[in-house]
């Protein structure tokens, strides 16, 4: 939005965004198309696009004269008109938009970037996908992934069910990357007895750039959705190059970089598969996935969102942990090392033990779940005395190799089902969707 | 066969120039990588693809881009200290480099441009892979400028500040390899209006003038490839043909002339883009779809330029190069040509320092840097970098005191490049370069002439081989002539 003075001047001259205008100041005249004021800029500068394509801002000041030269054409996109013929030999993949713009179109006249969701738009942007599968597509909602709630997970779960009933052979969910791994964990718990692949995909680099990772990610995701891996998975770049994507297990994946293409990594397991982008050939790295089969999907969407996630750190105050935990029906603590928080066995004069606070919480029915803040590796509460003490007071997590995010989502799921501490503990420690692995492949780290 | 003189004004030759000059900043335009481009070996490389981005222009345009990009693989070489994750497009750009902006604004102000109140960085679509992102970041920072040339006004349409593209290493079929250390180095782009009524030589001279204005900031990179010129050419009835990437300024007039002849030989010239070969001829390059399309770079905040800041820059603008040229000519007694060469030389500062300090003749010092040093480096592969400032001062002190003749300079430089621990004075002794007097010279000439039947040229050659570096060649020729009579 422009400043009120500019807005009212434009209004009085009936000038709209996209119109060709002439701006005269005492010693300069510029002509160009009026641009919308992007949120970052100085609201008291009028931005125009010059004929050479550049934008400049002209400071509003007294005596500035704006004149309408030519009415601009309204900015709108005609939907792409490509109609791909259905190929009965090929599987049908349904691509659902849940935010995260994997495809976009640029309107160069004004520089506006529009997200694109229709199958025709997807085929226009990524023509290869029609060679892999028959494509269906629609937008569920358009949301930044940090704005997600468990309600959105439920919507997605039910929409996936609809698509499966409508004979989709695989589903691709386009999703913002920030919380992609929370959604993949949630869907792993919620979509039970899954008959077809459900693949989450995003793009780390914006889709308006020709070098975006969107193309490789979407194409490899479509290959995955058409494959035999009937699991909830995440398919993203495997390296900085555009050479292959990994298919990660939904409960064992985490974003490990703010911006790099290969930000998503499998934690404590190997990815299910590696997909060669140029050749589209799948190389399976594991065999323990459920195969595509005619079985009926069961949706279990009982989720209790009221769970907290706290990071343990030096000097953390027991009373803060306790008062925070009281706001929740359960907390996950991203613990240090093999599963530790301060227990102060040596009675150091500065150290503060969390034992009494955590014991009170557990005794009063607030489950305390540990996950490794080191992300890689498994908790073991038997090695050090701190671990043994924590295990004794009833902290849940010994032997688990889940990520803090998966532990959080699981505790949401578990407390959505059972309320008693013993039941919670039992269900937490029972593997539901591959979130607890019994053994760790040597190659899974490094 | 005499070349037919072309009447360019009758042909209505119209040219347009776009000059690209790299800036010598400590850091790149949108990250903190070094702009040094010194690393020889890449530490690794990555492979990328690019794909078309759909636009309002619809399906045909996308299809054309898709075909072009379909099988292309771009290999990007990564260099330590000179490539970071911004360059590999794995990280968003950092804030715009303020040092670069300040230099670019100086250039714009010297070209009498108007500075926009708010600078907006744009993404300009580039699909040849020379930018890892698929676009080049560029911002117009000066508009509607002008400069004078031979009393006429040359219009400067714009000055932009942009990131340089990656340098191409090789192209093998659909496999293209680029070096990422050049990507992101700040560049000013200066565009002229239509230049009509000028000969190709004058257009070249205008390009030289613009280059020199950039140079006056003393913050521009020097050497091959640090300044590149695009020129578009049309003649009456022809279409505009753009020639890209002229690295050698002295080729510019030749390129224009060859292009005019090419267009004259065609029944109808088509609008096209041509790449420049080393000899000044050009070859057709496929027009790339999607060029000159721009949209805002939303990762960079628009920059508000305060009036006070511009006024301050205006007051502190560097000495204009024309003034500097005049000063060099009069102060050091240099010819126009020599002054123009030394002003462009990377040794300008050292040249002035030496002449001030040693009082050696300006032309001798200038010639040493412009031709002797270059010749030794190129032809005799002398490692000239080992010759230091104090070596040169030593040499020219000896020249000023007439302890050696200028013909001794190459020998001494060669000696010092090999033994940088030595001094010019010790080189003179070791190489036996004390000047000969006329009596000694005459003695040598007479010895040579004792051989019967010698022709003049042969005799001069024989004498020269005995006295090289010890006496001026002109004196030798004169004396041989005299004594042969």
Describe this structure in words.
The complex is a heterodimer of chains A (446) and B (485). In chain A, 24% of the residues lie in helices and 23% in strands. With 446 residues, chain A is α/β, with parallel strands linked by helices. In chain A, the strands form 6 sheets. An 8-stranded mixed sheet of chain A has the order 9-6-10-12-13-14-17-18, with helices on both faces. In chain A, strand 13 and strand 14 form a beta hairpin. In chain A, helix 4 crosses helix 5 and helix 5 packs parallel to helix 10. The radius of gyration of chain A is 26 Å and the shape is globular. With 485 residues, chain B is an alpha+beta fold. In chain B, strands 1, 6, 7, 8, 11, 12, 13, 14, 15, 16 and 17 form an 11-stranded mixed sheet that branches. In chain B, strands 2-4-10-9 form a 4-stranded mixed sheet, with no helix packed on it. In chain B, strands 5-18 form a two-stranded antiparallel sheet. In chain B, helix 7 packs across helix 9. The longest helix of chain B is centred in the C-terminal third of the chain and has 18 residues. Chain B is globular, with a radius of gyration of 27 Å. At the A-B interface, strand 4, strand 7 and helix 2 of A face strand 2, strand 3, helix 1, strand 5 and strand 6 of B.
Q: What topology emerges from the helices and strands here?
A:
The complex is a heterodimer of chains A (446) and B (485).
Chain A: H1 4-12, E1 20-25, E2 28-34, E3 45-49, E4 55-59, E5 65-70, E6 92-97, E7 104-107, E8 112-115, H2 119-125, H3 129-132, E9 134-139, H4 150-165, E10 170-174, H5 180-190, E11 191-192, E12 198-201, H6 214-225, E13 232-237, E14 244-249, E15 253-255, E16 264-266, E17 273-276, E18 282-284, E19 298-299, E20 308-311, H7 318-325, E21 331-335, H8 355-363, E22 368-372, H9 385-393, H10 404-415, H11 421-428
Parallel strand pairs in A: 6-9, 6-10, 10-12, 12-13, 20-21, 21-22
Antiparallel strand pairs in A: 1-2, 1-5, 2-3, 3-4, 7-8, 11-19, 13-14, 14-17, 15-16, 17-18
Helix pairs in contact in A: 4-5, 5-10, 7-8
Chain B: E1 14-22, E2 44-48, E3 54-55, H1 59-69, E4 73-78, H2 98-110, E5 118-119, E6 122-125, E7 135-149, E8 152-163, E9 167-172, E10 175-179, E11 186-192, E12 195-196, H3 200-215, E13 227-234, E14 241-246, H4 252-265, E15 272-276, E16 282-285, E17 294-296, E18 303-304, H5 307-315, H6 321-332, H7 336-344, H8 348-358, H9 362-379, H10 389-400, H11 409-418, H12 424-430, H13 438-449, H14 456-467, H15 473-484
Parallel strand pairs in B: 4-10, 14-15
Antiparallel strand pairs in B: 1-11, 1-12, 1-13, 2-4, 5-18, 6-7, 6-17, 7-8, 8-11, 9-10, 13-14, 15-16
């Amino acid at each position: 939005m422009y400043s009120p003075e500019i807005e009212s001047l434009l209004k009085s001259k009936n000038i709209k965004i996209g119109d060709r205008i002439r701006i005269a100041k005492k010693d300069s005249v510029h002509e160009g198309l009026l641009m919308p004021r992007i949120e970052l800029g100085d609201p008291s500068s009028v931005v125009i696009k010059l004929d050479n394509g550049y934008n400049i801002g002209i400071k509003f000041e007294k005596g500035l004269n704006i004149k309408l030269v030519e009415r601009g054409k309204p900015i709108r996109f005609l939907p792409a008109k490509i109609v791909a013929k259905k190929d009965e030999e090929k599987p049908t993949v349904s691509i659902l938009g849940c935010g995260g713009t994997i495809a976009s179109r640029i309107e160069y006249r004004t520089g506006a970037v529009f997200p694109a969701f229709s199958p025709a738009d997807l085929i226009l942007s990524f023509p290869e996908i029609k060679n892999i599968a028959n494509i269906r597509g629609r937008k569920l909602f358009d949301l930044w992934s940090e704005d997600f709630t468990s309600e959105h997970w439920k919507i997605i779960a039910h929409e996936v069910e609809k698509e499966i009933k409508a004979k989709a052979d695989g589903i691709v969910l386009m999703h913002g990357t920030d919380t992609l791994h929370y959604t993949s964990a949630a869907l792993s718990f919620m979509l039970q007895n899954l008959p077809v692949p459900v693949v989450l995909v995003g793009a780390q680099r914006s889709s308006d750039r020709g070098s975006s990772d969107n193309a490789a990610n979407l194409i490899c995701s479509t290959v995955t959705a058409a494959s035999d891996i009937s699991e909830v998975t995440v398919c993203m770049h495997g390296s900085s190059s555009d050479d292959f994507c990994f298919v990660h297990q939904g409960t064992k994946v985490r974003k490990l970089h703010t911006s790099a293409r290969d930000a998503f990594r499998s934690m404590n397991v190997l990815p299910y598969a590696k997909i060669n982008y140029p050749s589209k050939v799948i190389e399976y790295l594991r065999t323990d996935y459920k195969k595509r089969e005619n079985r009926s999907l069961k949706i279990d969407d009982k989720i209790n969102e009221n769970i907290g996630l706290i990071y343990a750190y030096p000097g953390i105050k027991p009373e803060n942990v306790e008062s925070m935990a009281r706001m929740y029906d359960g907390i996950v603590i991203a613990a240090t090392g093999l599963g530790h928080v301060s227990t102060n066995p040596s009675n150091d004069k500065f150290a503060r033990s969390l034992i009494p606070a955590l014991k009170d919480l557990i005794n009063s029915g607030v489950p305390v779940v540990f996950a490794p803040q080191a992300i890689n590796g498994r908790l073991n509460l038997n090695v050090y005395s701190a671990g043994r003490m924590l295990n004794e007071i009833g902290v849940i997590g010994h032997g688990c190799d889940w990520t803090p995010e998966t532990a959080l989502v699981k505790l949401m799921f578990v407390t959505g089902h059972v309320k008693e501490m013993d039941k919670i503990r039992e269900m937490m420690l029972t593997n539901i969707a591959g979130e607890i692995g019994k053994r760790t492949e040597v190659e899974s780290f490094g | 066969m005499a070349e037919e003189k072309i009447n360019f004004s009758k042909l209505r030759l119209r040219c347009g120039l776009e000059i690209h000059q790299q800036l010598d900043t400590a850091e790149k335009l949108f990250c903190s990588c070094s702009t040094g481009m010194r690393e020889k070996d890449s530490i690794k490389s990555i492979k990328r693809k690019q794909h078309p981005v759909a636009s309002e222009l619809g399906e045909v345009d996308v299809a054309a881009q898709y075909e072009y990009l379909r099988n292309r693989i771009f290999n990007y070489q990564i260099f330590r200290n000179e490539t970071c994750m911004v360059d590999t497009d794995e990280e968003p750009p950092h804030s715009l480099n303020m040092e670069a902006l300040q230099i670019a604004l100086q250039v714009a102000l010297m070209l009498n441009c108007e500075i926009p109140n708010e600078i907006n960085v744009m993404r300009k679509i580039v699909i040849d892979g020379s930018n890892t992102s698929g676009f080049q970041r560029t911002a117009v920072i000066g508009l509607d400028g002008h400069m004078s040339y031979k009393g006429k006004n040359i219009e400067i349409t714009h000055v932009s500040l942009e990131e340089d593209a990656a340098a191409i290493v090789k192209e093998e079929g659909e496999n293209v390899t680029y070096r990422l250390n050049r990507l992101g180095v700040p560049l000013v782009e200066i565009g002229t209006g239509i230049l009509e009524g000028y000969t190709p030589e004058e257009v070249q001279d205008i390009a030289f003038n613009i280059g020199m204005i950039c140079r006056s900031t003393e913050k521009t990179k020097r050497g091959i490839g640090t300044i590149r010129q695009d020129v578009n050419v049309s003649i009456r009835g022809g279409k505009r043909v753009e020639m890209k990437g002229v690295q050698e300024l002295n080729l510019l007039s030749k390129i224009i002339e060859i292009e005019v002849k090419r267009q004259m030989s065609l029944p109808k010239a088509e609008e096209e883009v041509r790449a420049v070969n080393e000899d000044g001829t050009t070859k057709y390059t496929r027009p790339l779809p999607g060029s000159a399309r721009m949209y805002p770079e939303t990762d960079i905040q628009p920059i508000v330029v305060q009036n006070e800041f511009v006024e301050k820059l205006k007051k502190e603008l560097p000495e204009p190069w024309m003034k500097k040229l005049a000063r060099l000519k009069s102060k050091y007694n240099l010819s126009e040509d020599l002054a123009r060469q030394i002003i462009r030389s990377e040794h300008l500062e050292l040249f002035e320092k030496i002449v001030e300090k040693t009082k050696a003749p300006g032309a001798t010092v200038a010639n040493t840097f412009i031709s002797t040093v270059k010749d030794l480096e190129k032809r005799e592969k002398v490692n000239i970098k080992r010759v230091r400032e104090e070596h040169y001062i030593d040499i020219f002190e000896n020249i000023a005191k007439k302890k050696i003749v200028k013909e001794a300079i190459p020998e001494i430089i060669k000696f010092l490049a090999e033994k940088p621990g030595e001094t010019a004075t010790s080189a003179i002794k070791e190489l036996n370069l004390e000047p000969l007097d006329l009596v000694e010279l005459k003695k040598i000439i007479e010895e040579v002439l004792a051989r019967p039947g010698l022709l003049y040229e042969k005799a001069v050659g024989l004498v020269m081989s005995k006295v090289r570096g010890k006496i001026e060649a002109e004196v030798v020729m004169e004396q041989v002539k005299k004594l042969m009579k």
